[in-house]
Amino acid sequence: MMFRRLILPAVLSTAITIFASGYGRADLGTALDNGALSLSAGGDGSWYEDFSTTAYGNSSARSGVIGANQSTWIQASLNGPGTISFYWKVSSESSNDNLQVLVDGVLKAQISGNVDWTSKAFTITGTGSHMVKWQYAKNGSISSGSDAGWVDQVTWSGYTALLWSTKASILSPVEGMGMTEANGRIYVISGYNSGDHNYLQEYNPATNTWAYKTGAPTIRRNLAAASLGGTIYAIGGSTTSNNQCVSTVERYDTVTDTWATVSALHATRSWPAVVAANSRIYAIGGYASGYKATVESYDPDNNSWTSLPDMPSPRDFMAWAVIGAKIYIIGGYDGTSLKSVLAYDTSTTTWSWKADMPQARHLAAATVVNGKIYVVGGITSAGTSSDVIEYNPSTNIWTSRTAMGTARSNPGAATVNGKIYVVGGKSGSSFVNTVEEGTFTTAGTLASTTVYAGEGKLIVAPNVLDRSNLMATRLGLNVKGAANGTVTVVIFDETGGFVDSVDINLDSSGYGVKRYTGPGNSVLAPGVYWAKASGSGVNDKKRFMVISRRKR
Questions:
Q1: Dmax (CA) of the chain
Q2: 358 in the same domain as 244
Q3: Which of 278, 287, 443, 509 is the most buried (most CB within 10 A)?
Q4: Nearest 5 degrees, angle CA 405-CA 442-CA 454?
């Protein structure tokens, strides 16, 4: 085991450069995989570069040795808005000695016990300077495990944030469905929920409405779908009646709302990857009496399938995406959850390996926005996930993005007008009917962006309001409770003193939003506040800050 100790002064205003005996020149960016960060460090111990464990690269940053009731920290100064993403890990006394992340002094998350590398991301909506701090803190003399925390691959997206909101729920929640986009609308085909179905459900993002269309001829689940020229192809899957995989391929005309059966696959397969590229439909992998590596493509003009070179690694339960002429097969399952990524070049009919995902993941979904792949949800070693990770083919690098509001496995994902839509799936044993929309927002528009709360919850956005930014004049108080109810939000100062009280009326979906400036005709003075929401099934409180950097 080899360590490079990073002796950090208590306050630094620029990226740190350290000369470590025996190792030559090093900088903290090496440990965190980001040499552009403006960093500082302090507390009761010195962080150092650890070569024994890493999420990415050759090393990670490890907390220094501390004693009872001590802490050690490292922090980054960032200009917002944007999204901070990173990987972290801890080995400590559970529930007592914590690795924490704080944004502008507000605790955002903490982990303790034995937690292996996992990704985390937060969206910071306010403009101007922000401080993100990672802190390992002990509350007593008892130590467990390595008594340390680690941080790795810190990424700041800078001026582009992925914000999630809840849209109209799907009419019939399912998993194992085929889902694709065509002509600006999203189509969910068949699937499973207490039995197989042949539903065809159409979502119109422009009106935020769902409608049933003519059902598919075949009742099935575990199929996949793709659209080509506005025509949708539903491919493969399995049936409950005989518990067999099928080779069925059916074509749906979105204009006439009619179905037709076309040439079947060469081989039966459930859970295949299905994509459209180069005027053809590709069916890849899946399962049928074993995990499949076979590939075939469909020519609509000739109504025929052609066998192509096998994948190097058989699998099902994978996510997939296409960019240009390349198809990406992401994660999946071959008896073990996979983190490997493969790319198939349809022009050369060759396969290549790409950078692994940070974690093994199966039953996830993927979609593409602006030349990057976004993998959502799925199952990891930690269980059903709400994580969102971004893959940039140009750099072959994975980055964590802001998680969805709902953890879900086996969902569908699609992109319409640059926005991500995630539909259905399961969370544990429950079917998920919620639809989440992911919007990429740049500086100058964040102040007016609404982030919707989860059931029974309150969101205060932004949680740090900078009065020196003339665009940031109001807070958004967002709640989710009983339909057509009323929620009362009481504002307290840090000492518990009453400041103000506002009522928020909820709509027929249970959502309510209030733009809040301050009590009466005044504005909230700089300070720390609490907002407590109650009524109509809501019982939640959030801490927020008002600051001002305006020169006097």
A1: 77
A2: yes
A3: 287
A4: 15
Residues 397 and 289 in one domain: yes
SS3 (DSSP) at 32: helix
Residue showing tokens 């009419």: 171
Alpha helix positions (H), 152-226: none
Q: How many CA atoms lie within 13 A of 88 on its CB side?
A: 24
The answer as to whether 240 is a domain residue is: yes
Domain ranges, residue 90: 3-158
Structure tokens at 336: 């073990």
CATH (domain of 395): 2.120.10.80
CA distance 120 to 18: 27
For residue 30, give the 3-state DSSP assignment: helix
Burial label, 381 (beta-carbon count in 10 A; 0-12, 13-18, 19+): exposed
- Statement to judge: residues 170 and 77 lie in one domain: no
Q: What is the CATH number of the domain that holds 505?
A: 2.60.40.1930
The answer as to whether 552 is a domain residue is no
Same domain as 426, residue 346: yes
d(CA 107, CA 461): 15
Query: How crowded is residue 321: how many other Cβ atoms within 10 Å of its Cβ?
Result: 23
Give the Å distances, CA to CA, from 141 to 93, 99, 138: 10, 16, 8
Q: Are residues 115 and 171 in the same domain?
A: no
Residue bearing tokens 């692994």: 356
Q: State how many domains the chain has.
A: 3
Instruction: Point out the domain boundary residue: 158, 185, 212.
Output: 158
Is the C-alpha dihedral spanning 508, 514, 519, 521 positive or negative?
A: negative
Q: Among residues 446, 472, 498, which one ends one of the domains? A: 446
| Residue 274 half-sphere exposure toward CB, CA atoms < 13 A | 28
In a domain, 367, yes or no: yes
Structure tokens at 493: 């100062």
**CA triplet 136, 141, 143: central angle to 5 degrees?**
65
**Closest-CA residue to 523 (of 540, 501, 492, 546):** 546
Q: Which residue has the tokens 């189509």?
A: 187
